[in-house]
Amino acid sequence: MSRRTRALVGAVAVVATIPLVLSGCSGSGSASSGGSKALTIEDYYDANYNPVYKQCAKEVGATVTINHVAGAGLIAKVLQQASSKTLPDVLMLDNPDVQQIASSGALSDLSDYGLDADGDVPGVKAASTYKGKLYGLQSNTNSIALYYNKKLLADAGVQPPKTWDELKAAAKTLTKGSTYGFAMSNINTYEGTWQFLPFFWSNGGDEKDIATADATQALQLVEDLQDDGSMSKSSINWAQADVNNQFLAGKAAMMINGPWQLPALNEKKGLEFDSVPIPTRTGEATVAPLGGEAFTVPQTGDKDKMQLAGKFVGCLHSQKMQKTLSEVSGNVPTNLEAGAAWAKDHPQVASFVTTVQTARARTGELGPDWPKAATKIYTAVQLALTGKASPEAALKQAQSQEQ
After folding, report:
1. What phi and psi, each to the nearest 5 degrees, are found at residue 141?
2. Are 225 and 232 in contact (CB under 8 A)?
3. Which residue, among 48, 53, 50, 43, has the nearest Cα to 11 in the 3D structure?
4. Alpha helices of 303-403 — where are they, by DSSP H?
5. Using alpha carbons only, what angle is made at residue 143 by residues 141 and 146, rounded to the nearest 5 degrees?
6. Splitting the chain (403 residues) into consecutive groups of 10 residues, what average pLDDT does each group show?
């Protein structure tokens, strides 16, 4: 789920706080001055993004102090900063968190700076919109797809599956020796929910009430894959990085994962792989969750600096910078035209460009209450896969739990 475990874009990476000053082309200015050209940025990325920030700082005529913080503690830090009126000028947030922070009053409406998300993937725009106002711009996005080992599938005479029945048949055929046919993360965290959502949503599952027949079908599929031996019982303990390690080691012929795994996959000598959208029950378009981070302009009280911050965020969202950020992160541009062009030049992410067009924001239906539903979903998956309840009973039990 969009919590990603990778070095370049640390959605769950723990990165030490690193104060860094990057000079733009204008004067340094004073941070306390109303006309200051000095901006502070807070994110949970790493230093790979600093040149991108430096480029936009130069374009808008600013100097930038960058603070990289631990992803796991960012929201608590932001809420504390809002309370103490020490928010940064530009704040990066994981897209499911934008509405929560916007609802607290800590963010400004980006239309104040002439910014909009027109032309972007609809679900991405929805993730950063709260009560009709746009509070964040997401320069690139990601989702998940079905990776497959080309050699193992070719040797077994198996085609990449498009439907659930094809997935089950392929996974069963590909399960040989120490190699499972299929792998995914079913861990009891938001990552487990993130990976189950394409099956859940594509089959009509609704987070307002997860205990439905459609949701039961989706959970039954995952349980069937485990019960027939096509998926390891250890998946209940695997994060997405663990799943990728299984695939790299040749212990999984197919896996669900994201584009952030491409650097590791490409480094593996002799590994030939590709990816396709995650199969759906009847072969219709996949409805998967959208990942990625949005840049916001907090309410700092300094209107001049907020206007400058708005220009900076606008720079990061330009098609030129969307491509640059996608190169750094391994994700895909959120602008539909830029994404289509990106897929032609980067065939390894073509399946993700296709998937994000019909993908959904996790907060699209429940807004700030999404985490409650996410917890219920991964709880139900755990109950079913550990044999504590049938898929139907697991979903009912999880739906009834208090948050």
Report:
1. -140, 175
2. no
3. 43
4. 303-317, 319-329, 336-345, 350-357, 370-385, 391-400
5. 145
6. 36 30 32 67 94 96 95 91 96 94 96 97 94 97 97 98 98 98 97 98 97 98 98 98 98 97 94 98 96 96 97 97 91 94 94 94 89 96 98 98 72
